[in-house]
C-alpha cells in the first residue's frame, strides 16, 4: 500500500518535472549546488592564510577560479561559502512559505473582524518596500551577531506577503466547495477542515511558491551580506563580493576581473536554476491548479 | 468618487501603521535606540562605551529620560508638517537631503522606466506573435537569464566593464567633482554620461520583466474570441496586432508601471551605492552604514509615501484607461 502511494507520488509529481526541459535543467543546476554545499567542503579543503606571492593568479589547474587579493584560492571559498548561501536561501524561502501559508489560510478561512485585521496586516507588508525595510531591520539587529536561522527569518519577514494574499484567495474559492460544506455538516473540527481538506489541495501551489521564493531570498540575502550587514561566514558569496569590491578594490584593477567574475557567475547561475525550475514547475502543474478552481 | 475616498483613507491607515512600525522598531529596541550609533562611535574614536553612548544621545537628539510616546508624538507631528527629521551624520535636516537627492533618483528612474517599458512592450508583443519560433525562444531565454541577475550585480558588471576596463563611462557620482553645476551643454552632457551606468543597471532587468509579462499577456489576449471575430471581419493583421492585441495586453502593465515607479524610489539602494550616485538610495545606504536613524526613518517615510501615492495613481489611471472599470 505504502509502496503504491510512493509510486503514485513519483508519477504525479516527480516524473512530469523530469520530462519538462526547463524544470529538468533547473533541477540539475540546483542539485549541482546542493552537492557543492553538502559534499563539497568534505572534498575541498579551505586554506584562508594570506599568501601575497600568489595574489590575483589567473585560473589554472592549481587554482580553478584563480586567487584573490590575499592569494587565497577562490574556488575553495566558493565551495565552502555555498553551504551558507544554500542554507540561508532555503531557510528563508521555507520560512516565507510557512508564514505566508499560515496567514493566508487563516485569512481565507476566518471571517469578521479577525479576518479583516489579518487582511490589513497583509496589506501593510505588501505596501512597505521590502528591501529598504529589510536593511533597516538588519541594521537594528546588526550588533546581535545573528545566526543563519535568525537572518533567514529577517529575510522571510519581507517575502511572505504576496504569497499570503494568493493563498487567501485560493482558500476563499475552495471553502465554498461542496466537500468543505460536507465536512462542516459532519461537524468535523476546524483543524481537520483546514489541514486535511484545504491544505491538501494547496500543496502543489505551495511547492511552486517555495521554488519561486528562491530568487527573492537569494537576492535579499546576497544584498544584505554585500552591504556587510550580517557577517556570520566570511565565505558567503555576498560577503566575498563585499570584500572584493570594498576591501580589496578588485573592481578597479583589471587583474581582479576573474575574482569578481566567478563570484557573480555562481550567484547568477544559482538564481537562474531557481527561475528555470519554477518556470518548469508552473508549466507542469498550473493546468492542474486551474482544474481545481 | 466614493471608491477613491475609501481607498485613500485605507492607504493613509496603511501609511500610519508602516511608519509607526519602523519608528517602534528603531526606537524601542531592547536596550537603547542609540546603542548601535554608540558602538559605532566607540569603535571609530576608540573611547569608552558610556562616553560614546552619551555622545550618541546628543547626536540623535534623544533625551534618555523622555518616554517613547512623547518621542513618537513629536515625530508624527513633525512628519505631518512635512518635516522629515534631522540627520546626525550630515548635520542637516532630512528635508534638505531629500531636496538634494530626489531629483537625481527621479531622473534615473524616469529615464530607465521609459526606456525599459517601451522596449519591453515591443519585444514582448513581438515574441508572442512569433510564438514557438527561434526568435521567440531567443528573446524569452535571454529575458529569463537577465532576470536571474540582481540589479546590483549588473551594476558591478557595468562598472567593471564600461568604467574600469574600457574607460567609456565615469567611475561614479552624478557629475565631475571639478565642475560647477550649470546649464551649459558640456555639463548636461557630463550629467547624461554619469547617468548611463545607473540607468542601464535599473533598465535592463526591468526590460526583461516587462518583456516576459507582455509576452504572457499578449499570448493570452490572442486566444480571446474578439480577436478571432476581428480576423473574421477581415481586418488587416497590423490593425489587429496594434489596436486589438497590443492595447489590451498592455492594460494591466500600465497600472503596474505606476506602482513600479513608486517602489523604485527606494529599491535602488545598492545600485546607487555602487555607482556613488547621490540619489535617495545612496543616502539610504549611507544612513544604514553609519546608523543614522534620523535620516533612516525620514527617508523610509518618503519611500513609503512614494509607494502609497503610486498605488493610488495606479488605481486612478487604471480606471481612466479601462472603460470596463467605471468611476463611481
TrEMBL record, chain A:
The lineage of its organism: Bacteria, Bacillati, Bacillota, Clostridia, Thermoanaerobacterales. This is ABC-type dipeptide/oligopeptide/nickel transport system, permease component. It is a multi-pass membrane protein. It is found in: Cell membrane. GO terms for biological process: transmembrane transport. One of its GO terms (cellular component) is plasma membrane. Pfam families: BPD_transp_1, OppC_N. Its main location: membrane. It comes from the Bacteria. Coiled coil: none annotated. The chain crosses the membrane at residues 24-44, 85-106, 118-142, 189-208, 220-245, 257-277. Residues 86-273 form the ABC transmembrane type-1 domain. Belongs to the binding-protein-dependent transport system permease family. Keywords: Cell membrane, Membrane, Transmembrane, Transmembrane helix, Transport. PANTHER family: D,D-DIPEPTIDE TRANSPORT SYSTEM PERMEASE PROTEIN DDPC-RELATED, OLIGOPEPTIDE TRANSPORT SYSTEM PERMEASE PROTEIN APPC. The keyword rRNA-binding does not apply. The keyword Transmembrane applies. InterPro entries: BP-dependent_transpt_permease (IPR050366), MetI-like (IPR000515), MetI-like_sf (IPR035906), OppC_N (IPR025966). It comes from Caldanaerobacter subterraneus subsp. pacificus DSM 12653.
From TrEMBL, chain B:
SUPFAM superfamilies: MetI-like. PROSITE patterns: ABC_TM1. It is found in: Cell membrane; Membrane. It is a multi-pass membrane protein. The chain crosses the membrane at residues 7-26, 104-126, 138-162, 182-204, 253-275, 295-321. One of its GO terms (cellular component) is plasma membrane. Keywords: Membrane, Transmembrane, Transmembrane helix, Transport. One of its GO terms (biological process) is transmembrane transport. Residues 102-314 form the ABC transmembrane type-1 domain. Pfam families: BPD_transp_1. The keyword Lipid metabolism does not apply. Gene3D superfamilies: MetI-like. Belongs to the binding-protein-dependent transport system permease family. This is ABC transporter permease.
Amino acid at each position: 500500500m505504502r509502496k503504491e502511494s510512493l509510486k503514485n507520488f513519483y508519477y504525479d509529481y516527480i516524473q512530469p518535472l523530469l520530462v519538462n526541459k526547463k524544470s529538468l535543467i533547473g533541477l540539475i543546476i540546483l542539485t549541482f549546488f546542493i552537492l557543492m554545499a553538502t559534499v563539497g567542503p568534505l572534498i575541498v579543503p579551505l586554506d584562508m592564510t594570506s599568501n601575497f606571492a600568489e595574489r590575483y593568479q589567473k585560473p589554472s589547474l592549481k587554482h580553478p577560479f584563480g586567487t584573490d587579493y590575499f592569494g587565497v584560492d577562490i574556488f575553495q571559498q566558493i565551495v565552502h561559502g555555498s553551504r551558507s548561501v544554500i542554507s540561508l536561501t532555503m531557510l528563508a524561502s521555507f520560512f516565507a512559505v510557512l508564514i505566508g501559508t499560515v496567514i493566508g489560510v487563516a485569512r481565507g478561512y476566518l471571517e469578521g473582524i479577525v479576518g479583516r485585521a489579518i487582511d490589513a496586516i497583509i496589506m501593510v507588508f505588501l505596501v512597505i518596500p521590502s528591501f529598504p525595510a529589510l536593511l533597516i531591520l538588519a541594521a537594528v539587529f546588526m550588533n546581535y551577531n545573528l545566526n543563519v536561522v535568525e537572518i533567514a527569518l529577517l529575510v522571510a519577514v519581507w517575502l511572505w506577503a504576496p504569497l499570503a494574499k494568493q493563498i487567501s484567495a485560493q482558500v476563499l474559492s475552495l471553502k465554498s466547495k461542496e466537500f468543505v460544506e460536507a465536512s462542516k455538516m459532519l461537524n468535523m473540527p476546524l483543524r481537520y477542515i483546514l489541514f486535511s481538506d484545504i491544505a491538501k489541495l494547496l500543496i502543489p501551489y505551495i511547492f511552486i511558491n517555495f521554488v519561486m521564493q528562491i530568487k527573492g531570498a537569494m537576492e535579499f540575502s546576497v544584498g544584505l551580506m554585500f552591504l556587510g550587514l550580517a557577517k556570520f561566514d566570511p565565505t558567503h558569496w555576498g560577503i566575498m563580493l563585499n570584500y572584493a569590491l570594498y576591501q580589496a578594490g578588485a573592481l578597479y584593477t583589471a587583474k581582479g576581473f576573474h575574482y569578481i567574475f566567478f563570484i557573480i557567475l555562481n550567484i547568477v547561475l544559482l538564481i537562474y536554476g531557481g527561475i528555470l525550475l519554477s518556470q518548469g514547475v508552473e508549466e507542469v502543474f498550473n493546468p492542474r491548479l486551474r482544474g481545481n478552481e | 468618487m466614493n471608491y477613491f475616498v475609501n481607498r485613500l483613507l485605507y492607504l493613509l491607515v496603511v501609511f500610519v501603521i508602516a511608519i509607526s512600525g519602523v519608528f517602534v522598531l528603531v526606537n524601542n529596541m531592547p536596550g537603547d535606540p542609540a546603542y548601535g550609533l554608540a558602538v559605532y562611535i566607540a569603535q571609530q574614536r576608540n573611547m569608552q562605551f558610556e562616553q560614546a553612548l552619551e555622545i550618541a544621545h546628543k547626536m540623535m537628539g534623544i533625551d534618555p529620560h523622555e518616554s517613547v510616546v512623547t518621542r513618537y508624538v513629536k515625530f508624527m507631528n513633525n512628519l505631518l508638517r512635512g518635516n522629515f527629521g534631522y540627520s546626525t551624520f550630515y548635520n542637516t535636516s532630512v528635508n534638505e537631503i531629500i531636496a538634494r537627492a530626489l531629483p537625481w533618483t527621479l531622473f534615473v528612474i524616469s529615464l530607465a522606466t521609459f526606456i525599459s517599458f517601451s522596449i519591453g512592450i515591443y519585444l514582448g508583443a513581438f515574441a508572442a506573435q512569433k510564438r514557438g519560433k527561434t526568435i521567440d525562444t531567443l528573446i524569452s531565454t535571454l529575458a529569463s537569464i537577465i532576470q536571474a541577475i540582481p540589479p546590483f550585480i549588473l551594476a558591478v558588471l557595468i562598472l567593471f566593464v564600461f568604467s574600469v576596463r574600457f574607460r567609456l563611462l565615469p567611475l561614479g557620482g552624478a557629475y565631475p567633482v571639478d565642475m560647477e553645476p550649470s546649464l551649459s551643454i558640456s555639463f548636461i552632457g557630463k550629467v547624461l554620461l554619469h547617468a548611463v551606468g545607473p540607468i542601464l543597471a535599473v533598465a535592463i532587468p526591468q526590460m526583461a520583466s516587462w518583456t516576459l509579462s507582455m509576452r504572457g499577456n499578449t499570448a493570452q489576449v490572442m486566444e480571446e474570441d474578439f480577436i478571432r471575430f476581428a480576423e473574421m471581419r477581415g481586418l488587416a493583421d497590423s490593425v489587429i496586432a496594434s489596436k486589438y492585441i497590443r492595447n489590451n495586453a498592455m492594460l494591466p502593465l500600465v497600472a503596474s508601471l505606476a506602482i513600479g515607479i513608486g517602489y523604485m524610489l527606494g529599491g535602488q539602494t545598492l545600485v546607487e551605492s555602487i555607482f556613488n550616485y547621490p540619489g535617495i538610495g545612496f543616502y539610504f545606504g549611507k544612513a544604514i552604514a553609519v546608523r543614522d536613524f534620523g535620516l533612516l526613518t525620514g527617508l523610509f517615510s518618503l519611500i513609503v509615501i512614494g509607494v502609497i501615492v503610486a498605488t493610488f495613481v495606479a488605481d486612478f489611471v487604471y480606471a481612466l484607461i479601462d472603460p470596463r472599470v467605471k468611476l463611481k
